[in-house]
Amino acid sequence: MANLIIIGAQWGDEGKGKIVDLLAEQVNCVVRFQGGNNAGHTIVVDGRKFILHLIPSGILHPGKMCLIGNGVVVDPAVLVEEMDGLLRGGLPVSPQNLMISRHAHLIMPYHQALDLARESKKGKAKIGTTGRGIGPCYEDRAGRTGIRVHDLFDESLFRQKLAQNLEEKNFMLQQFFGAEPLALEPIADQYLALGQRLQPFAGNVSQYLDRIMGTGRHVLFEGAQGTHLDIDHGTYPFVTSSNTVAGHACCGAGVGPTRIDAVLGVIKAYTTRVGGGPFTTELQDSTGEYIQERGGEFGATTGRPRRCGWLDMMVVRSSVRLNGLAGLIMTKLDVLTGIPALKVAVAYECDGDRPETMPNELRSLEACGPIYEEFPGWEEDIRGVRRFADLPGNAQNYLRAVEEMAGVPLAIVSVGPGRDENIILQHPFADR
Ligand code: IMP
After folding, report:
1. What pTM was computed for the model?
2. Could you give the dihedral angle defined by the CA atoms of residues 382, 332, 409 and 307, in that order, rounded to the nearest 10 degrees?
3. pLDDT in tens, 99-114
4. Which of 137, 228, 240, 273 has the most ligand 1 atoms within 8 A of CB, as the residue to mutate?
5. Over the stretch 85-143, which tens digit does the pLDDT of each residue have?
6. What domains does the chain contain, in order, with CATH numbers?
7. 140 is a catalytic site residue
8. Taking a C-beta distance cutoff of 8 angstroms, is the pair 156, 38 a contact?
9. Catalytic residue check, 353
10. Distance 77 CA to ligand 1 centre (A)
11. What is the best residue among 225, 230, 297, 306 to mutate for testing ligand 1's pocket, by most ligand atoms within 8 Å of CB?
């Protein structure tokens, strides 16, 4: 497999960063294609912890080109801060290993202000966004009023677009939300200075990818969030504002679908969700707390505790369909150690019906309850295990059952946060 898409197959936070970091070894290039700094990867390398929000985790590998595609919404202050953090940690960041699409849209301070104001006005009905301005930025992109990376390099055009936007956004902020208006000058000064810093990194990501794919080099497309947070296919309106499914990797990076060789989905050994919205297998008991505690289930971006629950095969099977998954990668199997009996939702019961697939319309999904199958757990510490055959029998049975119910094989099982804490069943690049 030369060009591979990795996406989250649940509600985000599946551990994609660790997996992309692992697979980056085998590719020349890693590309982000949607989302923004609502994402957050925590990666542990040689005991050092790195948290990345925008820059693909491939940056932790020497000699890998990391690209931020046109489909990503970029907060330039966050990006520059992240670049500086990596430089301080002794990692190289230069136009030799980082390119940002000139066409990516910029998250502006009014996007963040509107995101926060809207959430607070919604009260109990809030989405539970990360408050980073992601939704309002994508709204402007669709509304053709967005400001893109290349606009930072033309001062008069940038000021003109900013003034036009501020006129409308300040009206909304003041008149509708009762919030403070924003002043033009400080934003212009800050963004134009950031633009100078970013200009050497700005390029045409689509052309770059076309060129390197044409010479047989390998590309990894790194999804952010998860399939069920997809704006179209997720649990709307409790979703993010971009398409998170694999099909969008092509749009968000500027490559044709015929260039993609395979898609793998990352799942946790259980399920988590941050923010509002239905969660059929949610656990609100001591087992949920055990998983949250052992799994360190607190957001890398906002620090919010993640809601935890059993693995849900309705969720996973929908992801197999929506993304055309060739296989699964399971993370955090070690977190389940010590739970005597593991439940897995194998189907739903909805008003006397058993739907064939997971309903993604809110009312229908809210009406569903899980139908569980129970699997005996294991007590042994599995973090040192590197071969499937060395796992406790009950862990092997759990994994085999997941494969069978998903209808696709497991490629990798992660048993700890470290780079080497994995069981490789079928290496995604084995048949390169
Ligand atoms: P937004 O993307 O900040 O607009 O948030 C919309 C919804 O997506 C909220 O429920 C967030 O908690 C969720 N969300 C956004 N990014 C992530 C992520 O990286 N992991 C998990 N949930 C996320």
Report:
1. 0.96
2. 140
3. 999 999 999 999 999 9
4. 240
5. 899 888 899 999 999 999 999 999 999 999 999 999 999 889 999 999 999 999 999 99
6. 3-93+204-424 (3.90.170.10), 105-200 (1.10.300.10)
7. no
8. no
9. no
10. 20
11. 225
